[in-house]
Structures are given as structure tokens and as C-alpha cells.
Design a protein that fits this description.
32% strand, seven-stranded mixed β-barrel, 180 residues
Length: 180
């Protein structure tokens, strides 16, 4: 099971969107070099306000490019980096991966999946009505979050568009992703 990196993005300043780059460097235990959300402890403003000592389980944000096609069919224009992700992927059902999945990029960098991004109101500030398209409910009424997954860097390295992504599922019973 695998896919490909279609874009990489980072921003050294707090901003909802992140500009695309030719490459990003992942730093073990920290996140994306030079990105405002890199660090051992939480960096997202709302989480810092609650408890700045929490571990940063949101070092690297990944979104599947297929989401852009899905919301595009409903009149929204979303491109890589627009929703603040660091790595845009294609060919992997990111939302179906279990906690603890390892993703290897280009044979070098490795991240461990920690959970789902919890979509926030900033998505509607970006494009009105988009939040309802990236969060919904399934047939049983359970909340479905589609705005990507979060991860921590296990092994550092450079990630570039076009890099192959290898998926390594964890052993034992799999835990479904929940918001982090």
C-alpha cells in the first residue's frame, strides 16, 4: 500500500494557509523545519492557551488531494497548502489508517500517525461553507472529520513532491483515528 507526495508546504508565521515549497525537511521529534507548528510541545494557539506543556502530536499535517476534488465538485476551490497542511498526498486513504501507522517518504523520512485534524472555524473564514464539507456525519450519526491527519516525526529527512509514500501498519489490533 502506498501513494505519492503531490505537494509540500510550510510557514514560519501563523497563517491559515501555507505556501508550497520545493521541499521541506522533517526533524525527528520536532516537525517541519522552520514551520510555526514545529516543536516538542503544542504550538497551535488554542492548545497552548489550555496547556502549553502538552506533547505536540500535531507536528506534521497531511491531507489527501482527493479531498480537493471532492469539495471542488461542490463549488469550492482548494489547492495544496490552502488548509494549512504540510504534506499533500495522493493514492492513500489517510482517514482509514489506524493510530501508529508509519509513513515513509522517499525512503528517508518517517512520520507516525497520531490522529485526525479537528476542523475549525478558520476553514469557513477561508471559504464560507467549506467547514460543513470537511466535517459531517456517517450513516450511524458519528462525526466524520475529513480535513486530514496529524503525525509526529520519527526519522528526519527531506520530503519533495513526487516522493513515493510507503505505508507500514502497526501490529496487533488497530485503533481507529480520533481527533488530536
Amino acid at each position: 500500500m502506498g501513494g505519492v507526495v503531490t505537494a509540500v508546504s510550510s510557514n514560519g508565521e501563523y497563517s491559515f494557509t501555507k505556501p508550497n515549497r520545493t521541499s521541506i525537511t522533517l526533524l525527528a521529534g520536532l516537525g517541519v523545519e522552520g514551520d510555526v507548528h514545529a516543536g516538542v510541545t503544542v504550538k497551535h494557539r488554542s492548545r497552548v492557551a489550555r496547556d502549553p506543556t502538552q506533547p505536540n502530536l500535531r507536528q506534521v499535517h497531511l491531507i489527501h488531494e482527493e479531498l480537493f476534488t471532492e469539495v471542488g465538485g461542490e463549488g469550492f476551490e482548494v489547492t495544496p497548502g490552502d488548509l494549512g497542511e504540510n504534506i499533500t498526498t495522493s493514492g492513500i486513504d489517510l482517514l482509514a489508517l489506524p493510530v501508529g501507522t508509519l509513513l515513509r517518504f522517499g525512503g528517508e523520512a518517517i512520520v507516525e500517525v497520531t490522529g485526525l485534524r479537528n476542523p475549525c472555524l478558520q476553514i469557513d473564514n477561508f471559504q464560507d461553507g467549506l467547514l460543513k464539507k470537511v466535517i459531517g456525519r456517517d450513516e450511524a450519526g458519528a462525526i466524520v472529520r475529513k480535513a486530514g491527519i496529524m503525525s509526529v516525526v520519527q526519522v528526519g529527512g527531506v520530503v519533495r513532491p513526487g516522493d513515493a509514500i510507503t505505508v507500514e501498519l502497526p501490529e496487533g489490533p488497530h485503533r481507529p483515528l480520533d481527533r488530536v
